[in-house]
Every structure is written in C-alpha cells, then in structure tokens.
Amino acid sequence: MNSQKKIRVLVVDDSALMRLLLSELIGAEADMEVVGVASDPYIARAMIRSHNPDVITLDVEMPRMDGLKFLENLMRLRPMPVLMVSTLTEKGSDISLRALELGAVDFVSKPKLDIAHTMNECGGEIVEKIRAAAHARILNRPREPLCPLPKIWERRTLSTEHLIAVGASTGGTEAIKTLLVSLPPDGPGIVIAQHMPEGFTRSFAARLDSLSRMRVKEGEDGERVLPGHAYIAPGHSHMLLQRSGANYLLRLSQSEPVNRHRPSVDVLFKSVAAHAGPNAIGVILTGMGKDGAQGILDMHHAGAHTLAQDEASCVVFGMPKEAIAIGAIDEVVSIGDIPAHLMRQVVTMGPRSVRI
C-alpha cells in the first residue's frame, strides 16, 4: 500500500459541472485527493478551516464574493497555494495577472466550449500545476526593499550593444516585475521568455510597461532590440535573437515546443549564446522543470555572465536548481538583489552612460 502523503485539494468554482470535472480529474491521480468542493468563497472559507487543504483551485467569477477579493483576503489572513482557473480572454488575462500579483502560484485557462472534451486535453497541465503549487513557496508580500542601485554607471562597450536575457516559469510574472521596475530607463535591451499561454503575454507586457521605466512590449518578428527596451516572447511563439551587422534582431518561430514549452527559455538562451556571446548576461528565475538550464549553460560557455534566482526568493526552485546543478551559473542571488548585480556586471562590460 502506498503510504505517501496525498496532496489535499479544495475545488472552488460556481459551476457544478466544473466542480465535478475537476474532482474527477484530481481524484484519478494517485498522489492527490479532493477534500472538498465549494460553490462560493464563503463556503470555501469554512472548508479551509475544517479540511486544511494543501492547494486550492479557485474560480474568478463567483457569487457573493469574486475570486480576486477572496484571494486577497486569503493571502492576508492565511496564505496558502492557490491555482487560479480563468477564461482566456483579454479581460481574463488581466484578471489572471492580477491574481498572480496577489499571490496565486499559477493559473490555468478555463475552457469556454465543450468543457468536458477540453478538460480531457488540458488535464495533464492542471494536475502538473497542482503538484507545483503544493511544493511552492508562498512568499510574504510586500517583498523586502530592493537593493539600491548607484546613481550613475559608466561602462566601456566591447564591440556592440549589450544584452540581458531572462527566462522564467511558475512565479516568474512577479519576479520579472521586481526585476524590471528596478532597472534604469536606458540600460541594455532585455529579451524575456516567460512560460505563459497565448493571449496573456500582451497584457503582461502592457502591465509591466505601465510600472517600469523601460519600454516593455511583446517581441515582434524582425524587430530591432534597442537599449531601454524589454521584449516579452509572445505566448504563441519561440523568440530567438539574431545578429544583423551591429544590431540584434528578434525572430519568432512556431516550431515544435521545446521542453514542452513554446515559448521556450532554452530556445531563447541558445540563440543569445550564438549571437551575443560575452556581450550578454543570462538570468534564470523561478520556475518548474528544467527549461533554460542547457541554454544558460551554452551562454556560460560562450562567455556570458550568468545569474540564478536563489531558492529562498523562488516560488518554485526548479529551473534555477537545474542550471546550478550543471555548472551553468556564476552567481546565485535573491530576486531583490538581481538588478544591482546586473548593473554592476554591465559596468565591467563597457562604456555607455547609464543614468538612474
């Protein structure tokens, strides 16, 4: 008999069909069990007290109290791993991103049509994210003050513009936000691969653009990478770096997923290793799995400086741990200190004036 402790899940959704389908999906897994179902947050609150679940799956639109307000209250009073269930629309993507800001571990796009059939197709993603949530670190919010940056940086260029490449997955939306809002408006161009479904990355970029002193946008095929700009890989494509004379260009590809992901961090990092080499800095952030580990190792071998987010500040210490284990990382740093470490490294690389 298997004595392994099961992941105890509370399903919160106003749809009776969704509660049934999620319960059947979760109950079919040997390492999980549904300890309760709730049709609204008030019922959920009572069940949390009585059943003490390991993970909550939470709908957004519910009677009596919406899911975001319930999540905000929960994270303030009794923080615990929450997986959001959201409809994939422009409105829904904004709601899901707000949920991540409030402390949800991750989200899954809620099927709109033929729910039973779609649930069968996305069932693997749901249970995988429940497992990740069960092992996630629920971080205190707000986070600690960020490490301050010096007022002026003078740097010597090697031969071309420098570049920062960032990869992340579970927990990455908040980590990327923490990184970007602390960087100067005229720093190196940044290319970012965050595991996120199509339809969410545009809203994610727009949210970051409103908070950051850099310009943040979805990357476009053939677009030049400019200083003071950060480019998010679209949720439908791999994003790659190419060289054109003295410039870097972005290329998008809808080739097969790599490490089950498109966009893939490995695809981005490998292209940066090939075309930017020692003029790049690589950063691998919180995330489940190993996507990006081999790519940042390639960057390391090509002469790039490489950083990994430390375990204490990660929601899921999967991707950084894999990269550290294979010897790909020069520095392991808390997310709040990464911006200062990046800019110190930029100083050693060459001469554009960067003013804070």
Q: Could you give me the name of the CATH homologous superfamily of the largest domain?
A: Methylesterase CheB, C-terminal domain
Major sheet description: 7 strands, parallel
Secondary structure: helix percent: 25-40%
Secondary-structure element series = EHEHEHEHEHEEHEHEEEEHEHEHEHE
CATH domain fold name of the largest domain: Rossmann fold
Query: How many domains comprise the coordinates?
Result: 2
Which residue ranges are poorly predicted, with pLDDT under 50 across at least 5 consecutive positions? 142-146, 150-160, 352-356
The share of residues in extended strands comes to 15-25%
Q: How many strands appear in the DSSP assignment?
A: 16
Rounded to an integer in angstroms, the radius of gyration calculated over CA atoms is 21 Å
Helix/strand-derived category reads: alpha/beta
Task: Walk across the major sheet and give the strand order.
Answer: 9-10-8-7-13-14-15
CATH class division of the largest domain: Alpha Beta
Ends distance: 61 Å
Shape type:
elongated
Annotation field: number of helices: 11
Q: What is the mean predicted local confidence, pLDDT?
A: 88
